[in-house]
Each structure stands twice: as C-alpha cells, then as structure tokens.
Amino acid sequence: MKKRTSDKEHSGIDFKLMLKDGFFIVSGILMAAFGLNGFLLPNSFIDGGAMGISLLITEISPLPLYLLVVLVNIPFVALGFKVIGRAFAIKTIIAILGLALVLATVSFPEITQDKLLVAVFGGFFLGAGIGLSIRGGSVLDGTEVLAIFLSRKLGTTIGDIIIGINVLIFLAAAYLLSVETALYSLLTYLAASKTLDFVVEGIEEYIGVTIISDKSAEIHSMIIEKLGHGLTIYTARGGYGKKGNHNEYDVIYTVITRLEIRKLNIEISKIDSKAFVVMNRVNDTRGGMIKKRSLKE
C-alpha cells in the first residue's frame, strides 16, 4: 500500500512539473515570437547567438526566419543531446518547432519604428522568451550549448566563448548590413541578455556569507533570532605567520538577500568589529529558511 501511495505521489509531482515546464516553454515561445515579429524583424535588427545568425541570414537571403530558426539550431540540438541529455534535447526540439510554427502562422503588428525602442523592447521580449524556455528545461537559442561543449574541450570559460561568438556575429552584421545596424543590434543583445538573467535567476539576488569570528556563538544566535535565517557551522583550521601556526575555529555560512547585507554587517559589527566576512553571489536557492526572512531594522 505504501509503495502504491508513493508511486501516485511521484506521478502527481511529475505531472505538475510537466505542466509547469509546458507553461514556461509556451510562454517563452509567444514572447520570443512577439519580440522578433513585432520589433526586430520589421526593422532589420539582429541579436546575438543562434537567433542572431538566423536573423542575419534572413536579411541577406530569401529564406524565411521560421525555417532558419530550425535549420540553424539543428546542430545545437544534436550537441545538446550529447552534452546535456535526452530530455533536454526533446524539450528543445519541441520549443524550437513551436517557435517556428508561431513565426510562420501568427501575425504580430509592428509596434514601432523608433530604433532605440526597437532595440530595447525587442531585446526585452526576446530575452524574456529565451529565459522562460530555459526555466522550462529547453532553449530557443543553442549558443550556450556550444559554449558548454567548447569550454570543456578548450578549458576556457563559457562566458568567454559566448562573447567570442557574438563578436563575430556583430562584425558580420556591420559588414553585411551597416555599422549603425550592428550597434543597435548590440544594444538589443545587451537588453536581451540582462532580461534573460532576470528571468532565469530571479530579480531577487541571493548572497552567500562566510563569517569567521572568535564570537561565532553570538553571531550564530543573531542570525537565527534577528534575521530569521538558517545557517551551517563547520570546524576549520587556519594557518598564519612564518611558522604556519594552526588554530581551530568555527566557520558560519548562511544565505541572505542583498537587501539584508547592510543589516547583517551592522549586527556583526556590534558583536565583533574584527570578524572576517566573505560574501559571494548565489544564483538560486532552494529549501531551508531563506524565504523566512525579516527586513525589520
């Protein structure tokens, strides 16, 4: 009986996740299509990545965008199957075919011809669409898959590879279209990439905080009682001086939001002004007491 109940629970969770992923992917397709047909395509603007390559080829050839979106992303989907996995590749195929279908069948009005508005809002809607598709477990632009693959082969960072690819795309746009179009397209890319970051990582930024202090017990109590956060305590050994003297101490690690940084620093200073504090950006969190926070001074 317990096994059957567990199987039903797992099935329910899987179904909810499937619906959630489907909602993100469909929403992403619609927003990306609106950004492309409503802003970028009518004004001959491009973006970075695989989508930028598709837009650029559309401008210099008779091939329609909906066909190029599929053709350009085929090698990225195949690579995604190898690098990330089957489920990712299947979802990506569905997302890209869905985007191509919407681009081919749905007519969006041209919103504006103002170049600055086209660059900013075209990038915004395209970035939001790509970000939502990523939240759903797929991609509408396969450039990052290529960057992951090359970073493993070449030993470089994913960010460096993406920048290199986009530099080539915008140089090609400057040569084949115009320098002005390339510059506006660069603005489109920046708007899209920032929007994508917000959609994928969330507007609320989390900060991981490591604290080393002789008064760790008091700081421990303060974080729990005044900030309302959970924390982790682990024992470490430090070395200093020419002789490499070692001493043991407790290290506190907790995760807060950026809105709580000032309050935490003030409270730590009250307890131990000489405490060693290291803060690092955390892209996302799950579980724990991070949601149960207090911003009261």
Structural commentary:
It is a single chain. The chain is an alpha+beta fold. It is built from 10 helices and 4 strands. The protein has a 4-stranded antiparallel beta sheet, covered by helices on one side. Helix 3 packs antiparallel against helix 4, helix 5 (115-135) runs parallel beside helix 8 and helix 6 (143-154) crosses helix 7 (158-176). The N and C termini lie far apart (51 Å). Residues 291-297 have low confidence and may be disordered.
Which strands sit side by side, in order, in the main sheet?
2-3-1-4
Query: Which residues form runs of ≥5 with pLDDT under 50?
Result: 291-297
Main β-sheet: number of strands, strand sense, barrel status? 4 strands, antiparallel
- Rg calculated over all Cα atoms: 24 Å
Mean of residue pLDDT? Answer: 84
The helical percent reads 55-70%
Q: Main attributes?
A:
297 residues; alpha+beta
Topology at a glance:
Blueprint: H1 2-40, H2 49-60, H3 65-83, H4 86-105, H5 115-135, H6 143-154, H7 158-176, H8 179-201, E1 206-212, H9 216-227, E2 232-240, E3 245-257, H10 261-271, E4 276-282
Antiparallel strand pairs: 1-3, 1-4, 2-3
Helix pairs in contact: 1-4, 1-5, 2-3, 2-7, 3-4, 3-6, 5-8, 6-7, 7-8, 9-10
In short:
The protein is α+β, with helices and mostly antiparallel strands.
